[in-house]
Specification:
Blueprint: H1 13-25, H2 30-44, H3 50-64, H4 69-84, H5 94-104, H6 114-134, H7 136-153, H8 159-188
Protein name: RRP12-like protein
InterPro entries: RRP12
Length: 189
């Protein structure tokens, strides 16, 4: 086995992913079971093969359409677990990262709903940071939308939302735009 490339993921992960997908798609087992699976996925999502990351992402977005506050919160935590781990392109291709970002705008809570808005902002921040880590070009294309969204959240009248959106903008400007500026400077010199 010397000289061979190690597998990108544990050989059991496809089976675990299929089990989780089955549980998420099963409506007969109830919300409690779904919440347990989401808690598991929060910690292992970034270890799964990319085909299963795609399917589970679609399942999470489908679950979020139920408009169940607890399920939506757990789905956002699961996405956060994926993005904050900075998965490689082999696990989360940049196009899929961008698609998830775009899809999550459909689930943006109202600015008057403080806790869900702050959770959503945190997930979006990590999604953009992960995208910048893997593709500055795609990040540059998608970044104006979140910056515009954050500036709109300043109008919410909720101090926590204004503070959260300011923090997200600061991090994205420092880590995404800053990285883009450094890259441009290194190319010019």
């Amino acid at each position: 086995m010397k000289g061979e490339n190690p597998p990108q993921y544990h050989p059991a992960t496809p089976y675990i992913a299929k089990f989780c997908i089955g549980q998420l798609d099963s409506e007969s087992d109830g919300i409690t079971n779904v919440l347990h699976v989401l808690a598991l996925l929060k910690d292992i999502f970034h270890h799964l093969p990319k085909i299963h990351v795609k399917t589970i992402s679609e399942s999470l977005l489908k679950l979020m359409t139920m408009k169940n506050v607890l399920v939506t919160s757990c789905c956002l935590q699961t996405f956060h677990g994926l993005f904050v781990s900075r998965p490689s392109e082999a696990i989360l291709p940049v196009q899929r990262n961008g698609q998830i970002i775009t899809a999550l705008y459909d689930y943006q809570p109202p600015a008057t709903d403080t806790q869900p808005t702050l959770a959503w902002l945190t997930v979006m921040q990590e999604a953009y940071l992960n995208l910048a880590h893997n593709s500055l070009n795609l990040c540059a294309v998608l970044l104006p939308r979140i910056l515009n969204t954050c500036s709109q959240l300043w109008l919410s009248g909720k101090s926590e939302v204004m503070s959260g959106s300011s923090h997200t903008m600061k991090i994205l400007l420092q880590d995404c735009v800053g990285k883009m500026c450094e890259t441009k400077k290194s190319i010019e010199t």
